[in-house]
Queue: 2 jobs
Job 1
Amino acid sequence: MKKLLLTALIAVSLTSFAFAAPVKKVNSFVTNSFNNDFKNVGSVAWDVSSSYAKATFVLDNIRTEAFYTLDGEFIGTTHAIAIEDLPVAAKRSFAKKYAGYTVKEAIKFDGEDGTAYFISAENEKESVILKASKSGLSVYNVN
C-alpha cells in the first residue's frame, strides 16, 4: 500500500493535480502535523485528494511540496532539482540509455525510507518516469 501511495505521489509531483477534482478542506490532523513539521513557513496552498493531502510552500527559497496521509502522517517532501544534482551514476545512465529524450523535470523525494530521485523525460514516441539511485536508473512508469 505504501509503495502504491508513493507511486501516486511521485506521479502527481511530476504531473499536474488537474485530473482529479481536489477536496478543498484540510482536516486538523493534517494541519497540526504540518505546523509541527514546518514551523516557519507561510503562504501554504493545500490540495486534498481522497487518499492524501499536499501542502505547497516555499522553504529556504525552494518551492516544496509536503505530503501527508489524511490521518496526518507525514509521507515525504518533494522539490524540483537540476539534472546536474542527480547522482553521478544516474546521470551517466540517463545520457547513455535515454540520449534521444528531453528531461521535462527532475525531483528529489525525501521520505521516511530515505531519499529518492525521479526524472520525467520524453521523446517523440513516449514519456517515461525514471527512478534514479546511486547505482543507476530504473523505469518507474512509461506512457
Job 2
Amino acid sequence: MQAPSAQDASTGLPVAGEPAARWRRGEDGELAVELMGPWRSAAALRAGETILRALAAAPKPARVTVSAGALTGWDSAFVAVLMQVRDSCTRAAIPLAWSEMPAGASRLVGLASAVPEARAGRHGGPAGSPLARLGRAALSRLDAWGGTVHFLGQVVLAFGRLARRQARFRPVDLWRTVLETGAQALPIVAVITLLVGLILAFIGAVQLSQFGASIYVADLVGLAMTREMAAVMTAIVLAGRTGANFAAQLGTMQGNEEIDALITLGIPPVEYLVLPRMLALALMMPLLYVYGCFIGLFGGYLVATGMLHLSSVAYIDRTRAAVHLADFMIGFVKSGVFGLLVAFAGCQRGIEAGRSAAAVGKAATSAVVSGIVYIIVTDALFSVLLNILKI
C-alpha cells in the first residue's frame, strides 16, 4: 500500500481481500480517514500503521474523523487498531470522532475504555522518577502503619469489653483454638527446643572444656533457655505454625464475605474472631515456654553427661544454683507477650487480606514475617529494659 502525500486525496483503491485506508486533509485541518475492505488479523494491524503515520505526519491535524462505511469485515485486530488510533489522538490532544462504526466494534472499544489499565500489571512497575517512587513507597508504608495502629485500637477496645464481660464470642471457639495452639504444638516445640539445648551445650562444651570448666555448661544452657531461647524459639515456631494459620483462616473468611456478614449482623469481627485467638495464644504460650524450657535443659543434660561425662547430680545441682526464679519469670512474661504479638500479626494480616486465593497466601506469608519481626524487636526492648533495671 502506497502512503500518500499530505495533499494527496487517497491511497488509491484497495487490493481485493486486503484492508485499506483512504484519508483526506481538509483546509480547516481536519483529517478524514475512511476504512475499506476486510480488517482482519495481521493485515489489519499492518494497515493500521499507515493511519498512525498519517497522524504523526506534519502538519498536526486539528481533528480526526474515522469512518468505516466501506468496511466489509472485521475482527479483534480491527478493534486493536481503533484503540491505537484513540490512544495516539489522546496523547497528541487531537479530537477524535467515529462514523459508521460496526455496533460490536463500538461496544468493545467502549468496554476497553470504561476501565483504565492497571498500572501495577505492567512488568516495568510504576512510572515516575525515583523520587516519586520513593514518595509513593513512603506513603504506602505510612498507610500500613496507620492500619496497624487502627487495628491495635480495635483490639484494645475489644479487651476492654472483655474486662467488662461484654465481649461477644463463642467459648467453644476459644477452647478449640487453645487445643490447636497448645496440645497440637507440643511435638514441634519439643523438637526445636531439644535441638537448641543440644546446640548450646555442645558449643559451650567445646569452649569451656579447654579451660577445665565443663561444669559451667549447666549455667550456659540453664540461663540461655530460661531467659531467652525457650521463649524466643517457641514464639518463632508458633509464628510460622499458628500465626500463618490465623491469617489463612481469616483471609479465607474475608474472601468468602463471612466477615462482611458479621458486620451486617452487627457483630464486631475483632471481638468474635480476633479476641478468642489472642486469648488462646496468650494463655498457651507461657505453658509451651515451660515445656520448652525443660526439654531444652534435658538437651543440655544429654550433652553434659554423654560428651563431657559429668554426673547427673552435678549437672542438676549446678543448674539449680545458676537459674533463679527471676530468670524463669522473665522468660515466662516474655512468652506471654510474644503470644499476643504472634496472634496480633496473624489476625491483622488475615482481616486485611484481599478476596483472592493469592491474597490469602500473601497474608499468611506477611503474618509470619511480621510476627518474627515483632518478636525480635520486643525481645531487644526487653533486654534493654532488664539491663536498665539490673535484672
